Recover the amino acids of this structure.
C-alpha cells in the first residue's frame, strides 16, 4: 500500500520535469502459464472422462476429445489474436458489440429447440451459443460505460441504467431458457458495479424486488422445482432426478486421497451422465483424489490472483474493470460448478472453465484470457523529462 501511495504521489507531483506515460512491455508470464496448464489439464481430463460414453454413443472413444482439441486450437488462435489486439479499442466498439450480441440472443429464440432449449445457432456442423458471447459482451460494455461514468455510479439514477440493460440480457436468456448463465452474468455485473464504486445500500434496495422475481422464475418451471426438491433429498428419487448428483458424490467419495489413477474412473462408465461436461470435476476427484482436486482448485486460485494483480496495475479504469469482469467470470463459474458437483447448491448446468467439453464456450474463454494478457502488457510509468 505504501509503495502504491508513493507512486500516486509521484503522479500528482508530475509537472514540467516528470510525466506519466503508458509503456508497452511483455505479457504476464505467470497468468499465461496457468492458462496453458489449465487448458492442457482440461484436455487430458476430457479424454479420460469421455472415452466410455463416446465409444458407447458413437463407436469412437476419441469422438469428444477430437472435437475438444479442435476447439482448443481455435481457442489458442483466438487468445493470440486478442492478446495482440489493443484492448483500448474495445471501448470504442462496446455499444456495437452489445447490440450485435442482443441481436444474436433474439435470433436464437427462433432456432430449433434442443432438449427443450433454444441456445444454439447453427451454421452447418458449426454451432455457437450466443449466451457465451453475452458473458464477454456485458463485461466489455460495463467496463467501457463505467470507466466514463466514474463517481456518478454512486447515484441511484445512474445505477438503474445498468440494471435496465442487464435486465434486457437476462430476460432474453431466461426465454431460451438458460438460467445458469443468468446467474453468472448477474454476479459478474454486481462485482463490476461494486468495484466501480456503486453503493451497497442501493443493491439492498434492488434486492427487495430482485429476490421475489428470482423465486417466481425458479417456481415457474417444474424441472427447477424438482431440482430444488432433489437437492434436499436426492435419495428420495435415486433412479430419477437424484441420479446425477448421487453418482457424482459416489465418484468423489471413492477417489480418496490420491484417487483410483488416471483413466480408472468407474462412474464414467454410464453412471455419471455425460461426464465430460458439467460433472467432469467429479471424475477428476475419482481418478486423482483430493490431491488432484486441490491442484485444480489451486491453479484456478493462482489464475484469479494473477488476474487481480493485472487489474490493479492496469494503466486505466477501463482496463482494470475489463480484467476484473473476466477474472470474476472465471472465479464465479468455477465456484458454482464445483458447488453443484459437491452438492453445495442445487444442480444447474454450469460448466467448469477449461475442463468441460464445449466448443464456443472454450473459444470465448480463451479469447477473454487474451484480453487479460493484452492489458497486462501496458504499464503506467513516471518518466523524468529532465
Amino acid at each position: 500500500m505504501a509503495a502504491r501511495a508513493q507512486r500516486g504521489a509521484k503522479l500528482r507531483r508530475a509537472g514540467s520535469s516528470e510525466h506519466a506515460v503508458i509503456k508497452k512491455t511483455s505479457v504476464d508470464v505467470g497468468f499465461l502459464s496457468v492458462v496453458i496448464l489449465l487448458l492442457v489439464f482440461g484436455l487430458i481430463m476430457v479424454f479420460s472422462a469421455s472415452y466410455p460414453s463416446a465409444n458407447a454413443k458413437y463407436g469412437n472413444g476419441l469422438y469428444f476429445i477430437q472435437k475438444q482439441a479442435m476447439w482448443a486450437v481455435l481457442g489458442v488462435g483466438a487468445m493470440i489474436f486478442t492478446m495482440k489486439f489493443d484492448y483500448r479499442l474495445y471501448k470504442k466498439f462496446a455499444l456495437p458489440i452489445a447490440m450485435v450480441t442482443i441481436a444474436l440472443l433474439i435470433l436464437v429464440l427462433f432456432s430449433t429447440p434442443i432438449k427443450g432449449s433454444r441456445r444454439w445457432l447453427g451454421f452447418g456442423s458449426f454451432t455457437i451459443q450466443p449466451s457465451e458471447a453475452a458473458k464477454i459482451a456485458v463485461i466489455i460494455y460495463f467496463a467501457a460505460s463505467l470507466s466514463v461514468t466514474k463517481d456518478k455510479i454512486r447515484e441511484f439514477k445512474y445505477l438503474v441504467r445498468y440494471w435496465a440493460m442487464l435486465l434486457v440480457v437476462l430476460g432474453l436468456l431466461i426465454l431460451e431458457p438458460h438460467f445458469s448463465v443468468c446467474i453468472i452474468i448477474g454476479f459478474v455485473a454486481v462485482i463490476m458495479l461494486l468495484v466501480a464504486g456503486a453503493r451497497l445500500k442501493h443493491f439492498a434496495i434492488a434486492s427487495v424486488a430482485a429476490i421475489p422475481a428470482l423465486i417466481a422464475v425458479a417456481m415457474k418451471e417444474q424441472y427447477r422445482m424438482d431440482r430444488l426438491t432433489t437437492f434436499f433429498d436426492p435419495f428420495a428419487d435415486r433412479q430419477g432426478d437424484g441420479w446425477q448428483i448421487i453418482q457424482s458424490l459416489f465418484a468423489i467419495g471413492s477417489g480418496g486421497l490420491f484417487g483410483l489413477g488416471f483413466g480408472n474412473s468407474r462412474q464414467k462408465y454410464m453412471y455419471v451422465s455425460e461426464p465430460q461436461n458439467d460433472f467432469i470435476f467429479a471424475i477428476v476427484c475419482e481418478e486423482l483424489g483430493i490431491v488432484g482436486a486441490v491442484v485444480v482448485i489451486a491453479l484456478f486460485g493462482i489464475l484469479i490472483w494473477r488476474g487481480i494483480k493485472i487489474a490493479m496495475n492496469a494503466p486505466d479504469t477501463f482496463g482494470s474493470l475489463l480484467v476484473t469482469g473476466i477474472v470474476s467470470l472465471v472465479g464465479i463459474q468455477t465456484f458454482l460448478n464445483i458447488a453443484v458437483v459437491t452438492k453445495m447448491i442445487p444442480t444447474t448446468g454450469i460448466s467448469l472453465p477449461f475442463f468441460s467439453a464445449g466448443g464456443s464456450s472454450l473459444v470465448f474463454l480463451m479469447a477473454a484470457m487474451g484480453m487479460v494478457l493484452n492489458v497486462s502488457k501496458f504499464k503506467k510509468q513516471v518518466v523524468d523529462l529532465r
User: Anything to note?
Assistant: The longest strand covers residues 18-24. The chain has a mean pLDDT of 88.
